[in-house]
Amino acid sequence: MSSRARVWTGYALGLGATAWAVVARLALASSLLERAALMPFVPAVLVAAFVGGLRPGLLTTAASVLAGLYFLLSAERAATVQVAGDWLHLVIFAATAISICWVCESLWAARRNLSRRAAEQLRQRGEELDRLLELMPAAAWLARDPECRRVVGNTLCCGWLGVASGWNLSVALPPEERRWLRFEHEGRELAPEEMPMHRAIATRTPVTDMEVDLVLVDETVISLLASAAPLFDAAGAVRGAVVVYLDTRERKQMRNNEERLRLAMEGADLGEWEMNLRTQRAFWSPLARELLGVGPDTPITFELYESRLHPDDLERDRVAVAQCLVTGKYQNEYRIPLVGGGFRWIDARAKMVRDAHGQIVRLFGVVSDITARKEAEEALARSEERLRLILESARDYAIFTVDGCGLVTSWNAGAANVFGYEERDIVGKNGDVLFTPEDRARHVPEKEMRAAQREGRARNERWHLRKDGSRFWGSGLTMPLRDHGQYHGFLKIMRDWTEARRAKELLERQAEALRQADRRKDEFLATLAHELRNPLAPLRHGLEILRRPAADKDMAERARAMMERQLVHMVHLIDDLLDVSRISRGKIELRKERIALAQVLRTAVETVHPLIESHHHELTLDVPPEPVFVEADLVRLAQVFANLLGNAAKFTPAGGHIWLMVEPRCDEVMVRVKDSGIGIKPEMLPRVFDLFAQVSDALERSQGGLGIGLSLVKQLVEMHGGAVEASSPGLDRGSEFTVRLPIAAPPSVPAGPPAPARAEREDVGHRVLVVDDNRDAAISLADILGLMGCDTRVAHDGFEGLRAGADFCPELVFLDIGMPEMNGYETARRMRAEPWGQKLVLVALTGWGQAEDKARAHDAGFDRHIVKPASTEVLEALLAELPVRSANAA
Predict the structure, then answer these.
(1) Nearest alpha carbon to residue 305 among 325, 267, 332
(2) How far apart are CA 225 and CA 241, in angstroms?
(3) Is 308:293 a contact under the CB 8 Å cutoff?
(4) pTM (two decimals)
(5) Torsion of CA 263, 265, 268, 270, to 10 degrees
(6) Distance CA 588, CA 544 (A)
(7) H or E element at residue 767
(8) What secondary structure does DSSP assign to 75-94, as a single string?
(9) Where is average pLDDT lowest: 105-109, 518-522, 833-837, 861-865?
(10) Is 50 exceeded by the pLDDT of residue 697?
(11) Cβ distance 154 to 139 under 8 Å?
């Protein structure tokens, strides 16, 4: 009944009761109980006040008083002696009636308060249930009638179906209105009576853990686990039902999460706590009490909590609580002093709870012991500090990090030393600037990081750039940095390995050069053996011809000429070997003078002319009419062109063509030797000037040689400040050698006519002593000198030479150097010490021809130094000079 209806009912009952009381009073007028005539009005007031409250009670009281006055006045006219007592009764009645109204009104106020509190509790409970339905991680359907004609769902359910809150989801509606098609179980469509909600209503018992599939209008299938229960009214009749659908796709994940949470709570030893910010009191779980050092029966207050904190952490904790009032979250780390000394580190986390008015009322949170972690962090900090000091002291190693995008995040002093960038210049910038432009174009930085992620590390062996743009060879590693399995950057360790790389490359080149030299040495030795044996065979044959008496004069002359040619060839081979040795050791000296190039070429052509004629080659000269002068050693430069022309003749088939062309250009002159011979393979062109190099295909087609002629050419040309290069279109297409020489200015005074040739001298009969431990060499040289008209003696060691000299008193002594017991140097010194040896001409005749050998011979007292074998021309020239030399020898 509403408040308004209750009041009007009180009015009606009060007036009715008053009327009844009037009737009752009238009935009592003649009785003996007339003095209690106002008693019938008391129930009327009580009924009106009890049912309607204060105002109906007061109205009934007023009506009763008026009725009482009526009866009182009427009685006064009848019996005046009772008037005073009746008025007293009336006042008492009025007071009693008002008291009854006040008491009833107080009872109604108490009932109203109780009703309001019950309503508020019901409202809160309903709100909590509504919130629970809205926030629960499951779809809830509520049927508001037993026939399930009106079915509504919570927010999650409406979200699944894409409908607004309060939408009717009843199965009785068409699918396009309810927004779902059907329920299925194991692929079979369920009838309405088989659905969880209908079964719960029909059986009046809950239905639990029923697996169904909900098919939406777009044919989307959601697998659900359903639980339904009927709802009853006060009479016990079914008034509806509720069903909760749990998405089983997430159920397993939820179970896993719950299991992980449980294990985490157990493993982390988390203690729960709650704090009431209004009362400043707190609740701590047993583990929280243990961690905070509080007994199980000790009352918890906020003051107790703060007293347990380390004094140095108290202010920080208050700041964290104040921040929680703003952010809604609390997190702090503090220390709890221990009884035995030391302290325990605590990690406290919480979230605040607000009441219905938005006021913060409580904090719920957990605490955990992080002492071990803090100790580890301190140890890590100390370790990192030591590592930092180590890294800073590693000046030769660049150690830095980059993030996943390649931006530099840290930079040690070694990196600044290696790359030239200071930390402030490079941190935050892309590390690609450390790579060369060509590596950046090939995306080498990205490839290096991908390789490090894939293989755990990546070698870094390449050129890098310094800040000043210079390059260095960096050697190091790139390693990925992981955090819980996730890559968040890379660590690079590198050092400048430029000098080591150059040394390594030099060693590799030297090793390769040694291998090539060793190979060429073996080839050379084989070739040398072959080339030395070639002239020995005709020499042996010639000797045999000369030994036989049957040989006529012409045959003997041919044998002599042949032996002379072979001997010249052997001397040429040995001279080439000696020249190469001298040049490679820097022991050769050029006697440069300003000479006409034409004179050099004429000497070279004269040298090889017999070879060219013997092969019937055609030699074409293309020399400009104007003279070209060069600063050169005539003999050595002529040797260069003679070697080139000789090679052309050797490697050109009979009847071929050879060109010798001179082309002046500005400050240099080019001399080209071209032939129509067998040519050179392209792969051999870079090696034709190497020592002992020979073209394998040309071995069978050549005229002999040791493979040192072109090497000698190259070295002699370079000693003259020039250069030489070879070219060839290919095999059997000829070859061309080009020599470039700097041009010298013409001489200021024209060269005079050539000196006349020395006339053959007449035999003078000089006394000559030959000292050599090689008997054949000594005797053959004495025989030749004898044929030249000299009086000769022979000795085979130094002591014998000294005795022969004292007896013979020679004018000229040929003395070998390498003799047993007493070498030539010592023999020469002793001869010079003798009276007969002070004026004689002393000649060193030896196979040693280096400059230091000549200097040593001069220091020992020799006048001349001749390398074996001495040609007839050299001997004749020496004899021709003998009187002059002898005259100056004193």
Answers:
(1) 332
(2) 17
(3) yes
(4) 0.35
(5) -170
(6) 40
(7) strand 767-771
(8) HHHH-GGGHHHHHHHHHHHH
(9) 518-522
(10) no
(11) yes
